[in-house]
Design goal:
The protein is an alpha/beta fold and 202 residues long. The chain has two domains: 55 residues, Orthogonal Bundle (Helicase, Ruva Protein, domain 3); 124 residues, Dna Topoisomerase Vi A Subunit, Chain: A, domain 2 (3-Layer(aba) Sandwich). The structure holds zinc ion. The site of zinc ion has 8 residues, from helix 4.
Length: 202
């Protein structure tokens, strides 16, 4: 490793930064040197923010979005339509829907999709409370907004079977929209069109 000539504290930071998605060792080294070039207050503020993050931010007990309290601001918002539930893979997808302004119901964040080859089964997804929520809320429609790739489709079909006992109507947003990790880059118009063009899942 080329960074072996570096002080240990710097090397440690580099190896931690290199674990971030999309950051290799080179970028990590560049970031670490950038931090070193900044006033000391920046590093203290950054480390403080990280500590605050893990101490104060948790996942909503209902929808699994990030929350400071037990429930997130969306679940707590009395103006949201409580009879529609949109199931998304990740928080980035939820945020994309929020930015589009096209959706006013509640969410359920799975934190993944079914991927048997990667060892991700139903138990690895945040599914345990979904049926209970649907019953408690009296949900009339569940909109499945997982990606249109193989794993997203498999997850949608699993959900259809999983939710059958509740009798809830299950629909799927229009396909052809890049979803999953890429949903956050989809513009608001495309996203609202996908939402409007949703079809019953059979
Ligand atoms: Zn919530």
């Amino acid at each position: 490793m080329s960074s072996s000539r570096l002080p240990q504290a710097l090397e440690k930071l580099v190896s931690l930064l290199a674990r971030l998605p999309g950051i290799g060792e080179r970028s990590a080294t560049r970031l670490a040197f950038y931090m070193l070039s900044q006033p000391e207050s920046y590093a203290r503020e950054l480390s403080g923010a990280l500590v605050e993050l893990v101490e104060r931010v948790h996942f909503c007990v209902d929808c699994h979005m990030v929350a400071e309290g037990e429930r997130c601001t969306i679940c707590e918002d009395p103006s949201r339509e409580r009879t529609t539930l949109c199931v998304v893979e990740g928080i980035a997808d939820l945020l994309a829907f929020e930015r589009s302004g096209a959706y006013h119901g509640l969410y359920h964040v799975l934190h993944g999709v079914l991927a048997p080859l990667k060892g991700v089964g139903p138990d690895e997804l945040r599914l345990a409370n979904l049926r209970g929520r649907i019953e408690a809320l009296g949900t009339s429609e569940v909109i499945v907004a997982t990606s249109s790739d193989v794993e997203g489709e498999a997850t949608a079909l699993y959900l259809l079977r999983h939710l059958a006992p509740t009798g809830v109507r299950v629909s799927r947003i229009a396909t052809g929209v890049p979803m999953g990790g890429e949903l956050e880059y989809v513009d608001a118009t495309t996203l609202s069109r996908a939402l409007r063009g949703r079809t019953p899942l059979e």
